[in-house]
Amino acid sequence: MPHSGLISEDDAEGLGAEALRRGRAGYQDGRMGKINERIAGLEERLRELKAQQQRSSARQRTLTSRRERREDTRRKILLGAWVLSQVDRGAMSRESLWAGLDQFLIRSDDRALFELPLREGVNDESSHRGAHESTHTPRPGEGDHPDSASGAKSNGVTLR
Q1: CA dist., res. 52 & res. 45, Å (int)
Q2: pLDDT tens over the chain, length 160 residues
Q3: What letters, b where the CB count within 10 A reaches 16 and e where it falls short, cover 106-132?
Q4: Which residues are within 8 A (CB) of 106 and not within 5 positions of it... i.e. 6 or more apart?
Q5: CA-to-CA distance for 110 and 125, rounded, in angstroms?
Q6: What is the pTM of this model?
Q7: Kindly report the CA angle at 77 between 73 and 78, in degrees rounded to 5?
Q8: Which of 98, 99, 97, 100 is nearest to 82 (CA)?
């Protein structure tokens, strides 16, 4: 066949196959791009959900801590009320209560609350928690002795 400036049939077939390959590659590249975008979007969503879960867990820990502290405070108030009722009924002497408080209370502000004399040489900074003072009021059967009754209201009982 004479050369007419056009491409031969064989060349046309080769070019067609190449164009087809390029078309498929372009299609696959576009498809892969969409898949990669979807993966990136899902990874971002996963980060958001993990952050939300962390906030929720922190909020739950805070609520649990507040509830436990509120319950502990209530136990201390009730324990103090019970001690005062024992004094009122004569089951415990006022002298015994005051001697116990005098021995138990170390911090100046705690002692001042009960009008006890300040202790010599006590550094309030280092004695933030007294030697016997704990942050937790024992439940029945949990400890040998109760925490301080210093947070209790007197319910009309005069301590002195």
Answers
A1: 10
A2: 455 556 666 666 766 666 666 666 666 677 888 999 999 999 999 999 999 999 999 999 999 999 999 999 999 999 999 999 999 999 999 999 999 999 999 999 999 999 999 988 777 665 554 444 455 555 545 544 444 344 433 444 455 5
A3: bbeebbeebeeeeeeeeeeeeeeebee
A4: 119, 122, 127, 130, 131, 133
A5: 13
A6: 0.52
A7: 115
A8: 97
* DSSP sequence for 41-67: HHHHHHHHHHHHHHHHHHHHHHHHHHH
Rounded distance, CA 124 to CA 108, Å? Answer: 7
Residue 16's SS3 state is helix
- Total residues found in the chain within this entry: 160
Structure tokens given for 88: 């009122």
Distance CA 27, CA 112 (A): 83
Residue with tokens 């031969």: 8
Beta carbons of 84 and 149 less than 8 angstroms apart? yes
Element (H, E) at 27: helix 9-89
